[in-house]
C-alpha cells in the first residue's frame, strides 16, 4: 500500500524499471509511491547498477526485525559512494559536515526515521554532535522531531514534505531581510544613493521570494 514498506513484487518492479532505464520518478509513478521512496531504496541497496530485488528484500527484512538496532554505516560500496557524493554536495552548499552526514543518513534510511542513539552509533560521532546537527536540521525544516512516548525518546524524521517546509522557512527568512532593506531605504531617503541601492536590493529579494513561495505551493503535490 502507498506509504507502507515495499513488497518483494515492488522491488522486482523497481529492478525492471532500472533495467529499462526509467527515472526514479517514473518508477515511483508506476508503483504509486513517492519518488524519495524509490531513490532511498536504490541508494541503500547497491545503487542503479547493483540493485538486486531479492537481496534488497532480505536486507530490509533483517533491518525491520523487532529489537534490531540500525546497523553502523558500512564504508565503501556503491551506496557508500552515493552517500559520500551527496554529503560533499551538501557541504559545498554550506552545511556543516556532521550535519550533512546526519541529514544524508536520514535520507537514505528505509523509513526516514532515526533516534539520536542510532545516529550516534551509525556515524561514530558524539551525542553532542548529533544533538547540534539535528537541532539545526529541525530549525531549518529539513527534518521534524517526534516523541516516542512508550520509550521516552525523540525520533527524527525526514519525509517528502520536509523539502516543502525547508523552502518555505528559507523564503520566510529572506523575505524578512528584503523588508528590512526596504525599511532602511525609507530611513536613508529614496533619493539618496544608499536608499536607492537598498530599495533595489529589497525589491529584488522580495519579488524572488514571493515567486519561490508561490512555486513551492503550486508544485507541493509532487511530493505526495
Q: How would you describe this protein?
A:
- Residues 5-45 form the Transposase IS30-like HTH domain.
- Residues 109-153 form the HTH marR-type domain.
- Pfam families: HTH_38 (PF13936), MarR_2 (PF12802).
- The chain has 224 residues and is mainly alpha-helical.
- The chain is built from 11 helices and 3 strands.
- It has a 3-stranded antiparallel beta sheet.
- It starts with 7 loop residues before the first helix and ends in a 5-residue tail after the last helix.
- The mean pLDDT is 85.
Derived from helix and strand composition plus strand pairing, the structural class reads mainly alpha
What do the pLDDT scores average to? 85
Distance N to C terminus = 14 Å
Q: Using DSSP, what is the number of strands?
A: 3
Strand order of the largest sheet: 1-3-2
What is the helix/strand order? HHHHHHHEHHEEHH
Percent in strands = 5-15%
Biggest sheet architecture: 3 strands, antiparallel
Number of helices, counting only DSSP H or I runs of 4 residues or more: 11
Radius of gyration: 21 Å
Helix content: 55-70%
Low-pLDDT segments, ≥5 res? none
Shape: globular
Give the gist of this structure.
With about 220 residues, this protein is mainly alpha-helical.
Features of the shown structure:
single chain; 224 residues; mainly alpha; 3-stranded antiparallel beta sheet; 11 helices; 6% strand
Amino acid at each position: 500500500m502507498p506509504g507502507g514498506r515495499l513488497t518483494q513484487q515492488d522491488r522486482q518492479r523497481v529492478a525492471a524499471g532500472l533495467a529499462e532505464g526509467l527515472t526514479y520518478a517514473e518508477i515511483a509513478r508506476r508503483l504509486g509511491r513517492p519518488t524519495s521512496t524509490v531513490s532511498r531504496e536504490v541508494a541503500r541497496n547497491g545503487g542503479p547498477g547493483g540493485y538486486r530485488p531479492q537481496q534488497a528484500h532480505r536486507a530490509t527484512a533483517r533491518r525491520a526485525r523487532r529489537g534490531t538496532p540500525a546497523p553502523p554505516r558500512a564504508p565503501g560500496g556503491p551506496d557508500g559512494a552515493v552517500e559520500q557524493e551527496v554529503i560533499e554536495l551538501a557541504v559545498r552548499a554550506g552545511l556543516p559536515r556532521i550535519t550533512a552526514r546526519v541529514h544524508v543518513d536520514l535520507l537514505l534510511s528505509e523509513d526516514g526515521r532515526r533516534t539520536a542513539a542510532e545516529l550516534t552509533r551509525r556515524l561514530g560521532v558524539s551525542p553532542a554532535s548529533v544533538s547540534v546537527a539535528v537541532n539545526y536540521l529541525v530549525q531549518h525544516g529539513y527534518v521534524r522531531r517526534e516523541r516516542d512516548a512508550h520509550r521516552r525518546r525523540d525520533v527524527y524524521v525526514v519525509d517528502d514534505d520536509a523539502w516543502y517546509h525547508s523552502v518555505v522557512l528559507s523564503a520566510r527568512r529572506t523575505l524578512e531581510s528584503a523588508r528590512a532593506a526596504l525599511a532602511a531605504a525609507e530611513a536613508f531617503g529614496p533619493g539618496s544613493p544608499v536608499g536607492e541601492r537598498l530599495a533595489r536590493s529589497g525589491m529584488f529579494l522580495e519579488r524572488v521570494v514571493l515567486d519561490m513561495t508561490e512555486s513551492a505551493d503550486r508544485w507541493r503535490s509532487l511530493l505526495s
